[in-house]
Structure formats: structure tokens, C-alpha cells
Amino acid sequence: MIALDKPPLRDLARLRVFIRSMADLVEREQDEATLLNQGSELLSELISHDDWLPDAYAQPSPVRYRQYLLYADVRQKFSVVSFVWGPGQETPIHNHTVWGLIGQLRGKEVTQPFVLNEKGLPMLQGKPITMRAGDVSAVSPTIGDLHAVRNASASEVAISIHVYGGNIGTLQRSAISKTGEKKMFVSGYSNASIPNLWDAP
Length: 201
Ligand code: FE
Description:
16% of the residues lie in helices and 31% in strands. By secondary structure, the protein is α+β, with helices and mostly antiparallel strands. Fe (iii) ion binds next to strand 9.
């Protein structure tokens, strides 16, 4: 057999277990609050260890934050993405249109929730929340779907693992400027292929 020259993979067992559990959860649970609660526990377990994310999906770009697809459910019921932030990088104010769970794997991020007022202008909703390694938060059209996120550090990379109730890179959603202008976007993904979960080391 010819040995393929490819970079060593980290052990993806933790990610495999997480994805299997999430697939079971989205299959059986219709209630969003329960799904977010139980999904938070699963994500919390996944990010309590920082030894599984392959380096290829942890690379920052000097230009803008990256979104690497780790897994998309075949029926598009959920997707898992690693968000990699270079120092000081930030998102515009944006929505998701589906539920989302955010688990901090490495570094620190700050998320600021917003709501639109009657004129369509984004207003701060509460204080900014600092996410530290091990923290999990949630967004959804039901509980609040609008926020802006930034790397809390001007010198370190930050990485969070996101789970969404759809194939997030393919969904039409919006970014809102401070003056209320809405811009539709589809985020896509920074990688062209997904890791092969079954390629166990
Ligand atoms: Fe977001």
C-alpha cells in the first residue's frame, strides 16, 4: 500500500462523539429551549478539552476572521464550525436566522447583543459578555439573534466552536450598520473540504 503524504490528524474522537450526540438531539428534540440546554451541555463537554481541533482548522488569517466547516449534517439540520480570530478581529452586527451555540475553545471573545428599535436602528441589549475558554452562549430568533463579536485580545488568537440549526455557511442573513442599513450576506466557509471524521489516527 502506498503511504499517502498528508499531515497528521489530531484524534477526532471527541468531535465524532459530539456530532453523534448532536445528531441524536436534533432528531428527537423539537423544543428549542430544551435543545439549547442539552446542546450547551454537549458543547461544554467538547470544549472542556483543547486537544482535538486539527491545526488546519485553527489557522487565523491576517485579513479577517475565518470560519472553517467541521461538519454539516446531511439533512442540513445542524452544522459545526470553528471560528478563528486573529488579534483584534471583529464581526459587524449580524443575525443568524437559526439557533446557534457558541463554545469558547481558546482565547477570549467579547459578544455584544443588540436589538432593533422601532426605527430599525441597532440598540445595545445589555452589557458585553466576555467568553473565556469553557464558556458557552446561545443565540436564536427566539432568544435574541443579533450581536457583534470580537476577539478580546490585541495579541492572541481566539477560537470558538459554533453549532447552528442549519448549514450556516449557505444561509441568507443580514449585517446591520450602526445607522440601520441592512446588508444581506451568505458567509460561506473558509475551507473547501471538511475533515474526514472516520479517518481515525
Ligand atoms: Fe454570530
